[in-house]
Write a structure and sequence with these properties.
124 residues; three-stranded antiparallel β-sheet
């Protein structure tokens, strides 16, 4: 293979790799949280309103919806009492979102808190 051909193959491979990991500029997501562990989540929507609507549609009952943009969201519930304490968080990375959701669950009286759900949007 000629050096020119090898450079072309390398350039095309680099572009394909970048395209695979590129996040959409308008990525939006949301996490809906309801009573007794109810939840809904949406990610990689084109706008915040569409993500919020999709998350609310999945969540049964009276739910609070938290938007996220290029971030992660997590919900933690108390397995000892699923209708009791819970915590949620939005953070730039999934590890931070999950840790903060667990912390919030315990802060509000949870005894056996576990992550119920999580979602990341675009680069979260």
């Amino acid at each position: 293979m000629s050096s020119r051909c090898a450079r072309l193959v390398a350039a095309v491979a680099s572009l394909l790799l970048l395209a695979a990991f590129a996040a959409p500029a308008d990525a939006a997501g949301a996490l809906s949280v309801g009573r007794c562990g109810a939840y809904g989540h949406a990610f990689d929507f084109s706008n915040a309103r569409a993500a919020i609507d999709a998350a609310q549609k999945q969540c049964k009952g009276d739910c609070k919806t938290i938007p996220m943009r290029r971030a992660c969201a997590a919900l933690s519930i108390d397995m000892a009492n699923p209708c009791g304490a819970h915590g949620f968080a939005v953070a730039p990375r999934i590890s931070s979102a999950q840790n903060n959701a667990m912390r919030n669950c315990y802060k509000f009286g949870g005894k056996e808190c576990v992550i119920r759900t999580w979602a990341c949007d675009a680069r979260g």
